[in-house]
Automatic annotation (TrEMBL):
Keywords of this entry: DNA-binding, Sigma factor, Transcription, Transcription regulation
Start and end residues of each RNA polymerase sigma-70 region domain: 13-73, 102-151
Pfam family, one: Sigma70_r2
Name of the protein in question: RNA polymerase sigma24 factor
Species, as recorded: Rhizocola hellebori
NCBIfam families membership: SigE-fam_strep, sigma70-ECF
Swiss-Prot/TrEMBL GO biological process terms: DNA-templated transcription initiation
Family listed: Belongs to the sigma-70 factor family. ECF subfamily.
MF GO annotations: DNA binding; sigma factor activity
Matches recorded under InterPro entries: RNA_pol_sigma-70-like, RNA_pol_sigma-70_dom, RNA_pol_sigma-E_actinobac, RNA_pol_sigma70_r2, RNA_pol_sigma70_r4, RNA_pol_sigma_r2, RNA_pol_sigma_r3/r4-like, WH-like_DNA-bd_sf
Length: 165
């Protein structure tokens, strides 16, 4: 299982980023990745070395949706503290927060579709396959999610402020 260990070391950052797009929280993202890797360890010989990223991203999305159905979300963070006082870092952190809030405002299924389509770069058919939904559902979730993001007040004001400066 040395190949699994090597893969985990190399893939950890990108898997956590993918999971963060789903959860909106770094700690939950790490928990999600750990749960997926624990399940993948036993299946590693069947996953194969061809495209473990795609397989694991699909596992991330399906595990996230399962967690979402089962879990009551009692904790709601009230604010995020910026990590750096630098001007560029502040703008980056602010943009990250605005995007995070906009993504978290989407229904969890739409968020999962966007993560697989645009972050994992899966085709519509591969996304449908990964989530076990129809191609038409992927298309409608994508269209609705993008329309909602275009209309999200924080994103709109952030983009308009950036265009004005």
């Amino acid at each position: 299982m040395e190949d699994f260990d090597a893969y985990v070391v190399a893939a950890w950052p990108r898997l956590v980023r993918s999971a963060w797009l789903l959860t909106g929280d770094w700690h939950r993202a790490e928990d999600l990745v750990q749960a997926v890797l624990a399940r993948a360890y036993g299946r590693w010989s069947r996953i194969g070395a061809d495209s473990p990223d795609a397989y694991l991203r699909a596992m991330l999305a399906t595990t996230f949706l399962t967690w979402w159905r089962r879990r009551w979300r009692a904790e709601i963070p009230s604010a995020t503290i910026a990590e750096s006082a630098g001007v560029d870092e502040h703008a980056r952190a602010e943009l990250q927060q605005v995007v995070r809030d906009a993504l978290l405002s989407l229904p969890h299924q739409q968020r999962a579709v966007l993560m697989l389509r645009f972050h994992a770069d899966l085709t519509e058919a591969a996304t449908a396959d990964a989530l076990g939904i129809s191609l038409g559902t992927v298309k409608s979730y994508t269209a609705r999610a993008l329309a909602a993001l275009r209309q999200h007040p924080s994103l709109r004001s952030f983009v308009l402020e950036g265009a004005a400066s």
